[in-house]
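Team,

Forwarding the record for the chain on the shared tracking sheet. I've put the sequence and predicted structure together so nobody has to dig through attachments.
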Amino acid sequence: MQTAIYLSFITASISFTVTETKLFKRLREWVKERNAFFGELLHCGYCFGHWVAFALVAIYQPKVVVAWPPLDYFLTALLIAWFSGIQWVLMCWVMAKAGK
């Protein structure tokens, strides 16, 4: 469980950085011009966080539930994405309060 929590912080950081910061604004706009689906994906931190969580689970292979491995990895990725979604909302709220 500890690994999943750590991965949720990483997921939230990556999804916030890609979907909300000026650093990736040109990339988001470029992708949106070429493909509407992927463009929307890069504008939604919650959606993008799911894909980041699935990638991190594929790399690190943490297990929260001991069950059939594909189901376990799927549920672990959803848990990480859920935790990171909460963190992403908090980061957006803090940035809005800071006027950024």
